[in-house]
Write a structure and sequence with these properties.
membrane, 3 domains, MFS_dom, 0% strand, 495 residues, MFS, MFS_trans_sf, Growth Hormone, Chain: A, 18 helices
């Protein structure tokens, strides 16, 4: 078994083969994040589930993934990145099998929470292993491969999910979207144990366990009532939980500050919380990522339950969005880093315009829409996401000291996923509450679902407009003012 101690990574002959294992695991992880949306209506019908339970299938996965990312990244430093990666893949594979075998909605939600944890154990180790296995020039190529894989997985998810449900492979129906991970995961564990080099763990590092518990409880108090409030009729305890999340978020800051003053390890370095670009950029990233997550969950249900689309048709309808993101990725490579703030403003304006265009088309459309009726707005929205993420992350990391760059990058991914979880919760509440109100008033099914989707899109337009306004207050970044790797390059990866 190759070790980092036995030979340098520059001389390790199997690093590109090992990269294949990392790419396969990454593809499996990201595919699972997008493949589920088109199956939600089928799952709801098959398991006789409440709409809030359907929300937990997506939001629960994303929330656990967000909360566990930073501590799992640190655990890789403490116990070894290879060991954590293989353990994460194995746990993800097991939970995928359990998801496919779920006899009821509660079991499926629990298995999805496990999947989120497995993904969080796996994902930060992938980036760290790529960083360790490759030197500067090769590292750039490896990260590019990782980015391309991410894009392909995001594009493929809805299509593969819709196709698997349509062909009803081995009479498994929606369960096949989870079982598809099992052979890939088993092969990745076996191949990874042989091919991935083992790097020594860092001695003396400790995990900030109280910090993990405080921030996890804060997010649980925030997300749980937003998802479950409508089911229970918004009783007093739901508002009490929302208010209670505020002192826990404040408590997390003061706990981390106390550890910083004592010179102890922190889950999130306090210095980052005092960096203007990082804090404001984090808020912008949180809000910006909340919109596509909520959009695609409600869009799939809108098309399938509102207008009778098949899962495959619903998957095809989403394709313009990732195509737009791909186009933006190639555009970004040809642009200078001199105008990061301007690119963020353009991206936010495009996202607002794209969502507003979808809103207008939903509002004016009569009858059953075609598969690509909303393609122009989705294409603009996808281009906006791909165009905005890189300059936003670069702006946030520009003022971050080199030693904190790793923690800052990990926190960025957590912020992104937490924003997605909140976006799913809020968009779903607006969507289902509006539908229920319209149906109670005697509206037809199609009209009720149109009203629900319009309510969601209106909220998203307001959020992205707020992002555009907030981006004006980001500091301008000087050329070359980027924290990052030792060779001066900053690699921004979209997960």
């Amino acid at each position: 078994m190759p070790t980092a101690e036995a030979q340098s990574t520059q001389g390790y002959p199997g690093r590109w083969v090992a990269m294949g294992v990392l790419i396969a695991a990454t593809f499996m992880n990201l595919l699972d994040a997008t493949i589920v949306n088109v199956a939600l209506p089928v799952i709801q019908k098959d398991l006789n589930a409440h709409s809030s339970s359907i929300e937990w299938i997506v939001a629960g996965y994303v929330l656990v993934f967000a909360l566990a990312l930073m501590p799992c990244g640190r655990l890789g430093d403490i116990y070894g990145k290879k060991q954590l990666f293989l353990g994460g893949v194995a746990f993800f594979t097991l939970s995928s099998a359990l998801s496919g075998a779920a006899p009821n909605i509660g079991f499926l939600i629990a298995a999805r929470l496990m999947q989120g944890l497995g993904a969080a154990i796996m994902a930060p180790q992938v980036l760290s292993l790529v960083q360790d296995m490759f030197v500067s020039k090769e590292r750039s190529a490896a990260f590019s491969m990782f980015g391309i894989t991410s894009g392909i997985a995001i594009v493929s998810g809805p299509l593969i999910g819709g196709w698997l449900i349509a062909v009803n492979l081995f009479d498994m129906g929606w369960r096949s979207i989870f079982y598809i991970n099992v052979p890939v995961g088993i092969i990745a564990v076996i191949a990874g144990s042989v091919l991935i080099p083992r790097f020594p763990a860092q001695r003396g590092l400790k995990l900030d366990k109280p910090g993990v518990m405080i921030v996890a409880l804060a997010f649980l108090l925030l997300i749980f009532p937003l998802v479950e409030g409508r089911r229970f009729g918004w009783p007093l305890w739901t508002f009490a939980m929302l208010l209670a999340s505020l002192p826990f978020f404040a408590g997390f800051y003061f706990w981390e500050k106390r550890r910083a003053d004592a010179g102890r390890e922190q889950l999130l370095p306090v210095s980052l919380m005092h960096t203007h670009a990082y804090v404001l950029g984090g808020i912008i990233s949180f809000l910006f990522y909340s919109t596509p997550a909520g959009l695609f969950m409600t869009f799939a249900i809108f098309l399938q339950q509102g207008f009778g689309f098949t899962p495959l048709q619903a998957g095809l309808a989403t394709i313009p969005f990732p195509i737009g993101a791909f186009m933006a990725a190639f555009t970004n490579r040809r642009l200078s880093d001199n105008f990061l703030k301007g690119r963020i403003l353009v991206g936010a304006a495009l996202m607002t315009s794209g969502l507003a265009l979808i809103l207008f088309m939903v509002w004016r459309h009569s009858g059953t829409p075609g598969v690509f009726s909303f393609a122009p707005g989705l294409l603009i929205g996808g281009f906006s996401l791909g165009f905005t993420v890189s300059p936003l992350f670069q702006s946030m990391l520009a003022e971050v000291p080199g030693p904190d760059a790793g923690s800052a990058s990990g926190a960025l991914q957590a912020i992104q996923q937490a924003g997605s979880a909140l976006g799913i919760a809020i968009a779903s509440q607006l969507f289902f509450a509006t539908i229920a109100a319209r149906q109670a008033a005697g509206a037809a099914t199609e009209a009720a679902y149109v009203a629900g989707f319009i309510a969601c899109l209106s909220y998203m337009v307001v959020i992205t407009a707020a992002v555009f306004f907030a981006a004006w207050f980001l500091p301008a970044v000087r050329p070359g003012q980027h924290a990052g790797s030792e060779d001066g390059e900053t690699e921004v990866i979209l997960l």
